[in-house]
Write a structure and sequence with these properties.
The protein is α+β, with helices and mostly antiparallel strands. The protein is 32% helix and 13% strand.
């Protein structure tokens, strides 16, 4: 059955998804040991966050983790929420993002609609 999320996802490619920035928050939170750390998160993506000792480290970690998070959701057939703001950042390179996340096998599928990618990440 088609959902509004699936219909929206069918409109953009993997390249567009990877290069459109999500809103990012950084906050100080106590970790499991009660030590204060910085948490960088994308509130539009449930469970997409990184903890680090410093804010900058958390932001860098989130940038690396975000690519893996998005690709894993697509590979498992889960919908990927589109960022609220639609402008694509042209200085980001989707190929480099996938390589950095260890997901280079997805590079040939970058310009395919996300909805056409099967669970293995290859075009249907």
């Amino acid at each position: 059955m088609s959902t509004p999320e699936a219909a929206e996802q069918a409109k953009f490619s993997l390249r567009e998804l990877l290069t459109t920035p999500y809103i990012t928050y950084v906050e100080a939170v106590p970790n499991e040991d009660g030590v204060w750390v910085r948490k960088a998160s994308c509130p539009e993506l449930d469970g997409c966050f990184v903890l680090a000792p410093r804010a900058w480290d958390a932001i860098l970690g989130l940038e690396r983790f975000l690519t893996e998070y998005l690709v894993d959701r697509i590979a498992s057939g889960k919908p990927v929420p589109r960022p609220r703001h639609r402008a694509v950042v042209t200085d980001l390179n989707a190929e480099e993002m996938l390589e950095r996340a260890g997901r280079a096998e997805w590079i040939p599928s970058l310009d395919d609609p996300v909805a056409s990618l099967d669970g293995a990440g290859l075009g249907s």
